[in-house]
Amino acid sequence: MTDIKNNLNEPVIETTNLVKVYKEGSIKAVDDLTLKIDKGEIYALIGANGSGKTTTINMLTGSLFPTSGQIKVLGQQIPKKRRIVATSIGVAPQEYALYSDLTVEQNIGFFAKLYNLQRGFLLKRLDELLPILRLDERRKTAVSNLSGGMKRRVSIACALVHQPRIVFFDEATVGIDPVLRAFFWDYFRSLAKAGLTIVLTSHVMDEAERANRIGLMRAGKLIEEGTPKEIKQRYSASSIEQVFLKLSQGAAADE
Amino acid sequence: MSKTRNFSLSRVLAVSWRVLTQISRDRRTLALIIFIPAFIMLIFGFVLGGQVKNLPILVDNQDAGYLIKATGLNLTNVNVGNQILAKLEEDNRVKVNQGDYSLGKTGVDNGSYYAAIAFPVNFSKELTSRNSGQTSNASVTIYIDGTNPTVQATILTAFQSSLQNTFGNGVVLNEQIAFGGKEFSSLDVSIPAVISLVLTQTVLLVSLIVIVRETTSGVLSRLYTMPLSGIERLLGYSIALLVIGMGMTSVVLFIGLGIFGAIIQGSLALLFLGAILYALLNIFLAVFLSNFAKNELQAVQMVPLITLASMALSGLLIPVESFPDWVQTIAKFVPMYYANKLFEGIMLKGYGIGSVAYQFIILGGAALLFFVLSVMTVRDRMSD
Fold first, then answer.
1. Residues of chain A where predicted confidence (pLDDT) is lower than 50
2. In Å, how far are A193, A240, B240 from A234, measured between CA atoms?
3. What DSSP designation does A215 have?
């Protein structure tokens, strides 16, 4: 599918002591982040707003350069080799990031052309993706006329059209109804089963319990990591939300 | 399937196609592209195509006339003031009212008249004395509004015409008109500069809006993660905007030449080529400036700054040669100055490519410079 070959035993994403300090302000948006994500995992970065989740995703996708630290995606150094890796990743940003004047089909078609997809392959992918994402009847509808949930699905279709090996969903399930959220998770699991690695961010704690592994972030730091079950056992909590509250209370006491 | 290439023409064309498709579905921008150049051209065309006329003036003719010997022993009363007044009343450039000179002066001061003219009581007598070889003090007093040079010049010209018509062909004006002896109207003379002004204003505005809208829509955050490079993106915009610029240039030239019938002594194809080159220069300038605008408001604010400065410095209002030396030096760095020279050369003087090659080279070089600056400043990642 792509011209990248990485060792099967290597993690598809690996960061070492990753730091990001924005020019405006001296606070570390991401502070000494080290993580490994394997092929086929659904990895959820969770944390409150401003905890550094989106900054991490932006650095992993190569659209934001780190202040220090190492990033390897599919065995390639990021940001140095980001143009090579770009064909193997898909991103659904926090905003819908779509052209509202264009139709659903035109939006997906445009992003597909940027991956140099052949027309025949694009049509095949449209026929696959649009029914799954329940957008088939909206092919010719301008994005400006769609609901928020539909726009989110178009954004996901744009991220998946080129059959990437890793997909990043930044707050993909925020602001959508529970039925659609359940549908999304079923779909994510089916993609992961097929070998796709999914990295998603969310500030909704209970939602993250559906991921294979969770990375809990606060003030730019990865404060806890593991499967939902492991983390809950570690803190004798019944939910990830409880764990988060315990960690927050601990942090407040330390301060 | 997906391949990684450093440069891909299909990605460039995909951006161009997307921009054009988006504009074709966006009525607001579509209207901006078609109607704004048309509207500005029509306004300029009507304003410049019209003649200055019916300027209200007041004439106070106190001339008592003078008895002169006609044939034989008959005496005839000659009133030169009346004769000039009659000629002025026939001239449609001015609308003559008669009255007291002091009322006329007050009228000029309060804006109801543009000029007050007074012929003294002994006007005819003094003129007659001069004709018979004696010393003369014949004079006419004019109190004129000096706030508008065009109005001032029109009234003085009308008055001088009436004097000449009264005294006959005592003076023969030997006119030698360069460039084919065509009698240019004010529209003909102004339209080359208006074309460059309208192209600057509209192409710059539309280009900036089209590009900066991408920044504000949030799509850039997705594009930064894709194989599309900054240069491919800029080229994509430029191709789409060139298509739009060609459309806008056609509208501008069609209205200037087709509707208002402005004179073009040179080649229409050369004029179109020059206009397209100038549009392209403004597109590249917009691409460069877009790197510094965070939203449409900031982008739009840049347009009058550039347009007004270019308009003043390019010689559109008064000839560049009248500027102080140091301002003339600055004017030589303004692309609109060369565009004006180019369009004037082709339209009024009938210049061919050989005579306007210098302007073509300067404008082409400036366009290239702006594109290189765009490439050097384009962002292909999020700001730190």
1. 1-2
2. 28, 11, 58
3. E
What residue numbers bound the domain in which A171 lies? 39-63+83-254
A123 touches chain B (CB under 8 A): no
Mean pLDDT, each 10-residue run in order, chain B (384 residues): 69 95 87 84 77 86 81 74 90 91 90 90 79 67 83 84 69 47 68 88 88 83 92 92 89 86 90 94 91 84 90 83 89 94 91 94 96 89 83
Q: How far is CA B217 from the centre of its chain?
A: 37
Q: Treating both helix axes as pointing N-terminal to C-terminal, what angle do B296-313 and B335-347 enclose, rounded to 10 degrees?
A: 60
User: Measured between alpha carbons, how far is A58 from B224 in angstroms, rounded to an integer?
Assistant: 9
Chain A: residue whose CA lies nearest to B216: A97
Q: Which residues of A touch B6 (CB under 8 A)?
A: 83
Calpha distance B105→B58 (Å, rounded): 9
State how far the Cα of B112 lies from the Cα of B115, in Å rounded to an integer: 9
| CATH number, position A242 | 3.40.50.300
Q: Kind of pairing, strands A76-77 and A68-73?
A: antiparallel
- Rounded distance between C-alpha atoms, residue A109 and residue A123, angstroms: 9
Is A87 inside a domain boundary? yes
**Average pLDDT along chain A:** 89
Q: Does residue A172 belong to any structural domain of this protein?
A: yes
Among chain B, residues having any CB pair with chain A shorter than 8 Å are 1-6, 8, 10-11, 14, 17-18, 21-22, 25-26, 217-219, 221-229, 381-384
Put the strands of the sheet holding B55-61 in their side by side order: B94-98, B55-61, B115-119, B141-144
Buried b (16+ CB within 10 A) or exposed e, A44-63: bbbbeeebbbbbbbbbbbbb
Tell me if B144 sits within 8 A of B107, measured CB to CB: no
Asked whether residue A220 is assigned to any structural domain, the reply reads yes
Pick among A84, A103, A115 to test the B interface (most B CBs inside 10 A):
A115
Within chain B, strands assigned E span 55-61, 66-69, 75-78, 94-98, 115-119, 141-144
Of A22, A86, A116, the CB nearest to B384: A22
ipTM for the predicted complex:
0.91
Task: List CB contacts of A140: < 8 A, sequence separation 6 or more.
Answer: A103, A104, A105
Listed residue (B270, B268, B278, B269) closest to B248, CA to CA: B278
**Whole-number Å distance between alpha carbons of B115 and B105:** 7
Residue the block writes with tokens 């065309």: B45
Q: Based on the structure, what is the number of domains in chain A?
A: 1
Cβ <8 Å between B225 and A23 = no
Q: Which residue of B has its CA nearest to A29?
A: B384
User: What kind and span of H or E run contains B259?
Assistant: none
**What confidence tens digit (pLDDT) does each residue in A191-205 have?**
999 999 999 998 887
- Residues of B within 8 A of A101 (CB-CB) are 22, 25-26
Q: Is residue A33 part of a domain?
A: no
Phi and psi at A147, nearest 5°, equal: -75, 170
A227 three-class SS: coil
**Encoded tokens for B141:** 């007093």
Are the beta carbons of B14 and A110 separated by less than 8 Å?
yes
